[in-house]
Amino acid sequence: MPRPIHHTAPEKTARTLVVLGSGGHTAEMLALLKHLDMDKLRPRTYVIASTDSMGAQKALAAEKAFSASKDEALDHANIVAIPRSREVGQSYLTSIWTTLVAAWAAMAIVWREAPELVLVNGPGTCIPLCFAAHLFRLFRWGTRIVYVESIARVESLSLSGKVLYHMRMADAFVVQWPHLQQRFPRSMYRGSLY
Amino acid sequence: MPGHVLVTVGSTKFDQLIQAVDTEAFAAALHERGFDSLLVQRGNGEYIPHVLLHKGQDEAQLSSGLKIEFVQYLPSMHTYMEAADLIISHAGSGSLFEALSLNKPIIAVPNAILMANHQEELAMHLDRLGHLVSATPETLVQAVRKLDVSRLKPYPKGSPQGIADAIHRLMGF
């Protein structure tokens, strides 16, 4: 068959890593994903905490949220689990070890998935992943990190937010209150999810 | 103010709020304001109501006429929120913004034990903006008595579109 003379450029896509966390974080992430162009943000990998028994359902809910009209849920997506660096109440001594384990797992995920976009909104598991992605792009340019601070944060940043903001790791650092944006001038305010 | 009051702690554990609701003073304040029914989702806590209810029961009608019911979980919070004339909620962002989107009068009670959740920060801010009233388990009765619904302003619902556009632009779409 003859090739068409005018061919359109292949559609631009971006391999995307989405980090899911506790109920509140996940609900905000779902609200955002519904408004993103999922035909372009693919393939998608959802990262959940290995101790989160609901994690896989959350990822499935995320996929269903925007493919409701299609029957292709999880066609362009997969789910990976990462150990938590620190459980609530865990001692500091053992957290050194578990943090190393989490960091190693984060490296493995980032190297394997080679994401062009890392989308995070604050659960603890996002810190090792962002470090890994930040390290990864020293070797291979092009990974963007987008951090969306929780709408519950009005006066101050969360721990994850502080780490990413002060270490300048996010290419877009989004807050959801104009007042908070004024306090952190390198952040951006583009309205709120709710 | 006629009608129905919904109290929810979501799926969290917030015994201080359930305990504050399970008092004669709270029931009297609801009656005084003309409410005739109370439904409480007590969630994951350990406190079992025993002041307004007899042991082993989960509903009752008080001599004032106030009907009360305590359940652990409601099948669809959204439906029950829609049916409520006043929502008293823990200050989790999910519950608060869901209630705000329905444009219902809200008394938000932050759970002080969940420091890391910053519930108080959010509740106080929305209170300052006039979208709801923030209270504590200790001031809840007072908050019900003084509630002036006419002073509450509707919350202008946000949209994720602006944030989504910024991400698309960053990715060169």
From TrEMBL, chain A:
PANTHER family: GLYCOSYL TRANSFERASE-RELATED (PTHR12154), UDP-N-ACETYLGLUCOSAMINE TRANSFERASE SUBUNIT ALG14 HOMOLOG (PTHR12154:SF4)
Localization of this protein: Endoplasmic reticulum membrane
Keywords noted in UniProt: Endoplasmic reticulum, Membrane, Transmembrane, Transmembrane helix
Full protein name: UDP-N-acetylglucosamine transferase subunit ALG14
One Pfam family here: Alg14
Topology in membrane: Single-pass membrane protein
Protein family per UniProt: Belongs to the ALG14 family.
Domain of life: Eukaryota
Family matches, as InterPro entries: Oligosacch_biosynth_Alg14
Species annotation: Coccomyxa viridis
From TrEMBL, chain B:
Residue ranges constituting the Glycosyl transferase family 28 C-terminal domain according to the UniProt record: 5-169
InterPro entries with a match to the protein in the record: Glyco_trans_28_C (IPR007235), UDP-GlcNAc_transferase (IPR052474)
Pfam families per the UniProt record, alphabetical: Glyco_tran_28_C
Protein name per its UniProtKB record: G4969 protein
Species in which this protein is naturally found: Coccomyxa viridis
